Amino acid sequence: MWQVAERAGVSQATVSLVLNNVGGSRVNETTRQRVMDAVAELGYRTNAFARSLRSGESGLIGFISDEVASSPFAGRLLKGAQLLAWETGNVILSVDTFGEPDLEAAAIDTMLSYRVKGVVYASMYHRMLDVPAGLDSISTVVVNAQDRSGHMSSVFPDEESGGYAATHHLIEAGHTRIAMINIQPPQSDLPAGVGRLAGYRRALAEAGIAADPRLLRSGTGIVEDGLALTLDLLTEDNRPTAIFCGNDRTAWGAYRALESVGLRAGEDCSIVGFDNHEMLAPYLDLGLTTMELPYEQMARTALGILLDGAANTSQKIPVECSLILRGSVTSAKVRA
Is the whole-model pTM more than 0.85? Predict the structure, then answer.
C-alpha cells in the first residue's frame, strides 16, 4: 500500500479510503483514478488474511452438503450460492460430506476455524433433516430440505404448488382422465412425494374432477417403475389420456412404455414430469414438459437470509417451481 501511495503521490490513508470504497470520503475522482492506475501498474492486491485478522471476518461463507456439489443437477444449488456470494464480495467454502458423520464434523470444525460468516446446510433432495449440533454456534440456513427441529430457517421447493401446476396444465389441455405415478410409497413421509400428490389432488378437486384411485400408482422414482406402472395404467378399461409423473426419470419410463405398445408421448398420451433434469427432459422425443426445481433461487434466498442476519429466525420459505413447456402435452380433444 505504501508503494501504491508513493506511485500515486498521495498518502497511505488516501489509498486505504479508495481501496475500501469508504463512503463520504473527500477523495476526488482525479485522485481516485490516480490511485487505481497505480494499483493496476503495481499489480497490488489487498491482503485478505490480514484484513480478516483485523475485522474478525473472513469473507467466507460455508456450504456443507451431502453430495450437492457432485450431483449433475442439484449442483445448481452451489452455483446459485456462489453467484450471490461473488456479487456481495464473499467467497463460498464448499464441502460434500457424502453422509459421513466424521467428515461432516471435520467440515464444520474447519468452517468455524476459518470464521465463516455463516453456513448454508444443503441436501441433494428435499427431506426433513437434523442439523448437526456443531452448527448451533453459527448462523445456519437449511436449503432444499427442512430443519426437523424448526430452530433454523429452511428454504425448500414448494412441492404442492408444483404438483398443482403440473396437473392444472393437463386439465387446461382438456384432460379429465389424469393418472399420477408418484416417486415414493404411500407410507413415505418425504416432502417431495407427499406435496406433489397433494397438489395433484387439489387441482382435480378444484376442477370438479373426481379422483379415481385406479389412476394412482406409487413407484420409487426410477425409469423401470415408470415403464412398468405406465404399462399397468394402459390396461385400465378407460385408460388415462394424461399422466403426471413424480419425476423426469419416471416420465422417461412412461415414454418407453407408450413406445412399446405403439403409442407416442405428446400425441397419444400427454406426459408431465418434475425436476427438469437438464440431461434428460429436453432430449426425449417429444421434449418433456416438466416442473423445474428452483435450485439457484433457493440458494440465493438462503444466502440472502444469512447475509441479512436473519438465519436463526425459524423461517420456513417455500420457493415456487416453474412449468417448462415442451412437446409432451397435447389437447385431449385432438386424441382419437
Answer: no
